[in-house]
Design a protein that fits this description.
heterotrimer; A alpha+beta; B alpha/beta; C alpha/beta; A: alpha+beta; FAD/NAD(P)-binding domain; 3 domains; eight-stranded mixed beta sheet; about 20% strand; B: alpha/beta; Rossmann fold; four-stranded parallel beta sheet
Chain lengths: ~550, ~400, ~425
């Protein structure tokens, strides 16, 4: 511990907070990042994982579109192991207005997005899964980005530059010197102990929860909770991102991500007090399936693994009931100027795509206030694991070995895959067979990636994210994590299985229902896990 | 080809029915579309989760429960025959008359059980243990068994537990395969001279212990390796189930199947019944994938095709159905009512199944089919997991049906 | 709205691990990833990125025992074989060519049959094949016949077929043609006795099983197309196409569509094992077999993997059990380990023999006069490994048959039917 004094404390372990922590640390600030649960447990972990080209916003929101394409190009360079350069299509279906295509293409061009109108036949040959009845197609530089990896890499780098990071640590109050915010009062959500940390600047990067954090400091930031539901399909149906070429609407983006594909989203306004308790309704599943099949008909005959919903952290500015016409623009609030609260900054709005730019703006503001004159380097410095040479070398090494040999892990950890030690007698053994997660990878996550429970482990490695949703791997991983505290490990296992089920339940038919029955036989029938069932929900 | 009875489904329930019918002199055919749920066997049959004596507990079951359809008296009478029935096939099960004992689960929970395989840890009470000092040994690198979990469970009851990892050079070759350090593959290696080495290692690490608890990874084809280990080790050995696949379950399945074929039964594995020809309220014959040009005819038919996992029931977003004969299924209409949000809650879909009359004759288009009976987990009205009655319903309804068929009821 | 559950077969996998228990290769060779990993699990990764293909999939015997055991109807073996053809970067060599182009080699060898047999038995030649080609020297080769079956048929039997009014078409396969014409002759003998004339296919090529497993997809497609054409011609004449080899039958029925992309749905039901056809005739009372009284043998039956997958061993065993003098022993169904050309390869010999151990032990313990099985490669493997004689059930039936009595009985049946 470096004591309790920092230059900057960042609240929120989503991608914005992690990115801001990295930027601050890189500029030499003494940085503390606090997250009340786990990294990516909010909107960061509940979206499409789409590396937007910006095309989606080209017609409706030029500014966002421009930001997107710029950040898109940056992320390809600095976050190579989190990004898949798949390319994307904007397709026009017979029911859509083809005249929108020209407007769309010219808007893309104006925003600096390389959008090319192509023959529908070419689109079909590029992407086999796309609806063959399309009447128009535009090719754009969309891609996929893994928000879990991206956040982890930012945290790892922040720490490398000296930042301190505390998960399961919640801000329960602000320490004030007059109006000035001079620190935060923290509660450890596991041990329930409290502590105080001081800093010149406190940055609120709490996403949708930033509304509450700001309120605690006495500032009003009105967030617009717009729920978006998504479905995960059992395998990679499409290799290019598929969008509808029309005004943004429900379920019009299909994104490939690692071993799966995702369709989303719906959009509905929800009361603020529901943001922590979201579930996907049968009606939402219906919309997603119906619209999804229009993008790629084979979705209708593909196993649906789970459903989940996130909340867009948009800043309210009008009364649009859908929340869609709101700008995705970045909102960086200097509460000293705005509300007379010195020492407090809120960074919000924006989106996964523009997290780095958001971090840059917040860090710039913090530096100005702290009198630090150092420029931002996050746009040119690769994240840990994304260094070109190291990543390539690691891939070459692993893919030249016979057998499984941890090939999947290279995709997850890029150049840092070498830190996984599978050389131990049992290190290469698979814990999760669907996603090929080895004992060595689990140990690496436990030792280096702030992994305290199974859900954390899932976010760091993909344990339990595959076809069976944790049927053998969860128990294996729990065993590896027990480490002398078995009751806690088993309670954790029960929480984990319940969390997996929560996503399966809205889509529990066909194989998913059969799988659930099998999982119940194992965990309850054979093991009797209900003895450890949770008293309340976990994160 | 004509048979007295054709049984669809070759799992625990189907095999029980088939064996009983063969014993009663029938000529039967059994068609199984794959291996059964016995491959995930816990080592114990459950009758019903209850602290009470069975007669009392049976009174409290809802009217639609398979046990209630049979009637408590008949259930108990049939249940009392199960132990001997399995002993006849070489599967030795032990239990107490009319009430539950406890088994130790792979995560160290003491769970209620009715009949437990010999050599498996079987406890009369969940309040105290018969051992003071316990050695729990695992095979090094075997991830489907966690001594720590079991130790924690037993320590709560006052036992002193020692967890040991045994490494045997004979397993090192298997270790090279990152996914296959599984119970069945280990069992294949633990035979012959390796048993001697294992016995010696176990004796070495268990000094002073009253018992050695081991994962059930011995004896894939026959019980001999387990017996041999028992003889060669200084201390008593008891087994605890592992995560799938279940070595004793595979062995049990094989012994039952062999017993059935030895009794003259015809067992077709890997074939699926595609449908049947009905004449009024009678099923005349069935067709299968592999023998599509053939109508397999019989006087009686038994459907023991299992629940969702075994594809005895299928579901789509809009409904749950029985795929072979499109029989009537008892299930909630709306999909949202099939499940509950908490994984550990009683899930309504678990109780879904084929509707029958009181004689377990299947209902189809509002009428019962005279010669088509349903047994086991395909029956509606019981929740194998929540009520802990899976194996009980599977075996007891099967024996009951076999009796009814041969006695012309 | 009705939308389907998954039509992607690999997604039906519940990850229950049952298949791993029944894989004969995994049981002896941990370098094989196992059916679950190689099949549905691996498929998901290969769809993401073909470089996830693992060359160790070459160890899959294609025995399909994983599929038979799967409670969820996953075509595990099919997935693996398809992946091998689609992704393997290993180029087949001279050895693979020689082992798999059975009709080419067979035609050449049968011209000089006995010479080849003697040459193949020479230690020096076996040594050379072992070291230069990687064909295991411990392996005994099937002998080549002096006179091919097709030649024999043309010279001795073809004309006589025309006196019949009902016909079947016979797919003899490479083995019966080049190595063991007696089997084919036995087939003709039985069918004739039952009152059926035998036609050969207009043009018969190797079924292609060895080509497929050795990576010659194009050659396999070429042959398969010719076979399908001839089969269609036979079916158009309402003649069932019968075979005496379980692997040929299985390949034509179940491997052509998904591995070679050839639709066979119109003729699939007409291609079957001879034992199935014969059994059905008898079972439905349309024909009878009369056996000699003096035939006395203890026969142990081995189920070849592909017959197990077809689910048809019941036909062969039921027929054998009809022979009054047969003391029948059913062997527990296990892979013999040869898997076609697999066991001929030097690097596979040890696995091949280890897989077969259980079966060999069963046979020795049963002490039969002979072993019956419907697959020629099983025959080679069992004869070489146990010393017991192995015969196709068709040959056993033919030996046990009272030909005259059978002809008479069936003629009487025919008259009866005509009377009705």
């Amino acid at each position: 511990m470096k004591g309790n004094n920092y230059d900057v404390i960042i609240i929120g372990g989503g991608i914005t907070g992690a990115g801001t922590a990295r930027d601050c640390a890189m500029r030499g600030l003494r940085t503390l990042l606090v997250e009340r649960y786990d990294f990516t447990s909010g909107a960061t972990g509940r979206n499409h994982g789409l590396l937007h080209s910006g095309a989606r916003y080209a017609v409706t929101d030029r500014e966002s579109a421009t930001e997107c394409i710029q950040e898109n190009m940056i992320l390809r360079k600095i976050a190579a192991h989190c990004v898949e350069e798949t390319g994307g299509l904007f397709i026009t279906l017979p029911e859509d207005d083809l005249s929108y295509q020209a407007l769309f293409a010219s808007a893309c061009k104006a925003a600096g997005i390389d959008a090319e109108i192509i023959d529908p036949k070419e689109a079909i040959s590029l992407e086999k899964s796309v609806n063959p009845s399309i009447i128009g197609a535009v090719r754009v530089p969309d891609g996929a980005v893994d928000p879990f990896r991206l956040t982890t890499a930012n945290v790892v780098d922040a720490r490398g530059f000296g930042a301190e990071v505390l998960t399961y640590t919640e801000v329960v109050g602000f320490i004030r010197d007059g109006e000035r915010v001079v620190g935060v009062e923290l509660r450890d959500n596991i041990t329930k102990t409290r502590s105080r940390k001081y800093a010149g600047i406190v940055i609120n990067a709490g996403g949708i929860w930033g509304h509450r954090i700001a309120a605690m400091a006495g500032a009003t930031v009105n967030m617009f909770p717009a729920k978006g539901a998504l479905l995960i399909f059992g395998h990679r149906v499409n290799n290019m991102v598929i969008n509808r070429c029309r005004k943004p609407s429900d379920a019009d983006i299909l994104v490939p991500g690692d071993t799966i594909s995702l369709i989303g989203t719906t959009s509905s306004r929800i009361p603020y007090d529901e943001i922590d308790y979201m579930s996907v309704t049968p009606e939402e599943v219906e919309i997603l399936m119906r619209e999804g099949r229009k993008l790629a008909p084979s979705l209708g005959t593909t196993r649906v693994l789970r459903a989940y919903a996130g909340v867009r952290p948009l800043v309210a500015s009008d009364n649009d009931p859908s929340g869609r016409s709101i700008s995705r623009g970045i909102v960086c609030l200097d509460h000293e100027k705005r509300d007379g609260i010195p020492g407090f900054i809120t960074i919000t709005g924006g989106k996964l795509m523009t997290y780095r730019l958001m971090a840059e703006q917040a860090t710039d503001l913090a530096c100005r206030k702290l009198g630090v004159r150092k420029s931002c380097e996050t746009a040119s410095t690769p994240l840990p694991g994304s260094e070109k040479k190291a990543k390539k070398k690691e891939a070459k090494r692993v893919f030249s070995m016979p057998g499984l040999g941890g090939k999947a892990a290279v995709g997850r950890h890029g150049g840092r895959n070498g830190r996984i030690d599978n050389s131990d007698r049992n290190g290469a053994s698979l814990v999760c067979e669907c996603e090929e997660v080895s004992v060595g990878e689990v140990k690496y996550a436990l030792q280096e990636l702030d992994t305290r429970n199974l859900i954390n482990l899932r976010r760091r490695t993909r344990v339990g994210m595959g076809t069976c949703q944790g049927e053998l791997c969860a128990c294996r991983a729990a065993g590896l994590m027990a480490n002398g505290c078995t009751a806690k490990a088993l309670e954790d296992l029960a929480v984990f299985m319940n969390e997996r089920w929560k996503g399966m339940q809205p889509v529990a038919w066909g194989e998913t229902l059969s799988e659930a029955q099998f999982t119940s036989w194992i965990y309850e029938g054979v093991c009797g896990l209900s003895r450890f069932k949770e008293k309340k929900g976990g994160m | 080809m004509n048979f007295d009875t054709i049984i669809i489904g070759g799992g625990l329930s189907g095999l029980t029915a088939g064996i009983e019918l063969q014993k009663r002199g029938q000529k039967t055919l059994m068609i199984s579309s794959g291996q059964s749920a016995l491959h995930f066997f816990s080592g114990s049959f459950e009758f019903l989760n209850t602290e009470e004596d069975y007669p009392e507990a049976l009174k409290k079951l809802p009217a639609g429960h398979p046990y209630s359809l049979m009637g408590a008296e008949k259930v108990l009478e049939t249940a009392s025959k199960v132990q001997d029935f399995f002993a006849g096939a070489g599967v030795v099960l032990n239990g107490e008359e009319g009430r539950n004992h406890f088994r130790i689960t792979p995560i160290g929970v003491l769970k209620q059980a009715w009949l437990t395989l010999e050599d498996y840890a079987r406890l009369p009470s969940d309040k105290s243990l018969p051992w003071k000092k316990v050695t729990i040994a695992n095979i090094e690198g075997f991830l489907d068994f966690h001594p720590d979990f079991i130790a924690a469970g037993l320590e709560e009851l006052g036992a002193e537990c020692h967890c040991r990892s045994i490494s045997l050079p004979e397993l090192d070759r298997l270790r090279n395969n990152p996914s296959e350090m599984r119970s069945a593959n280990i069992a294949r290696a633990l035979t012959g001279s390796v048993i001697g080495n294992l016995a010696k290692r176990l004796s070495d690490v268990s000094a002073g212990s009253d018992v050695i608890l081991l994962p059930a990874v011995l004896g894939l084809d026959d019980p001999r390796p387990a017996q041999s280990l028992k003889v060669r080790t200084d201390r008593p050995i008891e087994y605890i189930a592992t995560l799938p696949p279940s070595v004793p379950g595979i062995r049990t399945q094989m012994m039952l199947k062999n017993f059935y074929t030895r009794l003259g039964g015809t067992y077709l594995l890997g074939d699926s019944v595609t449908g049947g020809d009905f004449e009024g309220r009678k099923l005349k014959g069935i067709r299968t994938v592999n023998h599509s040009d053939k109508l397999f005819c019989a006087d009686n038919f038994i459907l023991a095709s299992g629940s969702f996992f075994s594809r005895g029931l299928l579901s789509t977003p809009s409904g749950i159905f029985e795929p072979v004969f499109d029989l009537q299924v008892n299930c909630p209409q709306e999909r949202r009512d099939w499940t509950k949000e908490n994984f550990f809650d009683r899930q309504p879909y678990m109780g879904c199944g084929v509707a029958t009359d009181g004689q377990f004759r299947a209902l189809r288009k509002g009428e019962s089919i005279e010669n088509l009976r349903v047994c086991g987990s395909l029956l509606s009205g019981s929740d194998a997991i929540n009520e802990g009655c899976g194996a009980g319903v599977a075996t007891i309804t099967a024996l009951h049906i076999a009796e009814n068929i041969t006695e012309g009821k | 709205m009705e939308y389907n559950t998954s039509e992607n077969n690999f997604e039906q996998c519940m990850k229950c691990t049952v298949c791993t228990v029944y894989c004969p290769m995994l049981a002896v060779n941990p370098d094989f990833p196992g059916p679950k990993q190689a099949g549905p699990d691996g498929e998901r990764y290969r769809l993401k990125d073909p470089s996830f293909y693992d060359e160790a999939l070459k160890y899959c015997l294609n025995c399909k025992r994983c599929e038979i055991s799967c409670p969820s109807n996953v075509k595990i073996g099919d997935i693996i074989q398809k992946a091998r053809l689609d992704y393997s970067a290993i180029k087949p060599g001279l050895r693979e060519f020689a082992l798999s182009h059975t009709d080419l080699i067979g035609t050449a060898a049968s011209v000089i049959g006995p010479v080849v047999n003697d040459v193949l038995k020479l230690g020096a030649v076996q040594y050379a094949m072992d070291t230069m080609m990687g064909v295991d020297r411990r392996r005994t080769f099937p002998e080549y016949s002096r006179e091919r079956f097709t030649l024999w048929f043309r010279r001795n039997a073809r004309a006589a077929q025309e006196k019949y009014s009902r016909f079947v078409t016979y797919f003899h396969g490479c083995y019966a043609n080049y190595n063991y014409p007696k089997l084919a002759q036995d087939f003709v003998k039985i069918l004739n006795a039952l009152g059926y004339g035998v036609h050969l296919m207009e043009k018969e090529k190797c079924c292609g099983v060895a080509l497929i497993s050795n990576g010659f997809r194009k050659d396999a497609i070429r042959g398969a197309k010719k076979n399908l054409k001839s089969i269609r011609e036979a079916v158009a004449k309402s003649e069932p196409v019968l075979a005496t080899s379980s692997t040929c039958t299985f390949t034509i029925r179940d491997e052509y569509p998904h591995l070679l992309g050839l639709d066979n749905s119109d003729i699939r039901g007409s291609v079957m094992m001879a034992t199935r056809f014969i059994f059905n005739l008898i079972d439905s009372g349309k024909a009878v077999l009369v056996f000699r009284n003096d035939y006395r043998h203890r026969i142990a039956y081995h189920t070849p993997c592909h017959l197990e997958k077809l689910g048809w061993s019941i036909y062969s065993t039921s027929l054998l059990k009809m022979i009054p003098g047969v003391d029948f022993v059913m062997l527990d169904s296990q892979c013999c380990g040869i898997a076609g050309t697999f066991g001929f390869k030097k690097e596979n010999y040890q696995y091949s023999q280890k897989i077969g151990e259980g079966l060999f032990r069963q046979i020795s313990e049963a002490e039969p006069d002979m072993v019956a099985t419907d697959c020629e490669t099983c025959k080679w493997q069992i004869e070489m490994s146990t010393g017991f004689k192995v015969e196709n059930p068709i040959s056993i039936l033919a030996d046990a048959l009272d030909v005259e009595a059978t002809i008479e009985a069936n003629a009487a049946l025919g008259t009866e039917a005509a009377d009705k």
